[in-house]
Amino acid sequence: MTTATYTVQGMTCGHCVASVTGALTQLPGVRDVTVDLDTGQVTVTSDEELDTPVVRDAVDGAGYALAS
Ligand SMILES: [Cu+2]
């Protein structure tokens, strides 16, 4: 089990949080997704380390952007 934190830009409300959480939860091996709306920090707990491009695609697909 591994945990990684990403910064997601563009989230403004609970709907955004739900969209990003839903998109990341669907990735293979993801066990838990926690979003801090104030900071835009998204913490993902997964079986194995996720590839950043995979995370980026999921966040993009939900309509948001992964910072750097
Ligand atoms: Cu929103």
Number of helices: 2
Q: Count of DSSP E strands?
A: 4
Percentage of residues assigned to helices: 25-40%
Shape: globular
* Bound heterogens, unique: copper (II) ion
Beta-strand content bin: 25-35%
| N to C succession of SSEs | EHEEHE
Which strand order spans the largest sheet, edge to edge or round the barrel?
2-3-1-4
Distance between the termini: 24 Å
Using only C-alpha atoms, the radius of gyration works out to 11 Å
Structural class: alpha+beta
Determine the mean pLDDT. Answer: 97
User: Main sheet?
Assistant: 4 strands, antiparallel
Ranges where pLDDT stays below 50 over 5 or more residues in a row are none
SSE arrangement:
Layout: E1 2-9, H1 14-25, E2 30-36, E3 41-46, H2 52-62, E4 65-66
Antiparallel strand pairs: 1-3, 1-4, 2-3
Helix pairs in contact: 1-2
The structure holds copper (II) ion.
The site of copper (II) ion has 4 residues, from helix 1.
Walk me through the structure.
The protein is globular. It is built from two helices and four strands. The chain has a four-stranded antiparallel beta sheet with strand order 2-3-1-4, with helices on one face. A hairpin with a 4-residue loop joins β2 (30-36) and β3 (41-46). It has helices spanning 14-25, 52-62; strands spanning 2-9, 30-36, 41-46, 65-66. The protein is α+β, with helices and mostly antiparallel strands and 68 residues long. Copper (II) ion is lined by residues 12-13, 15-16.
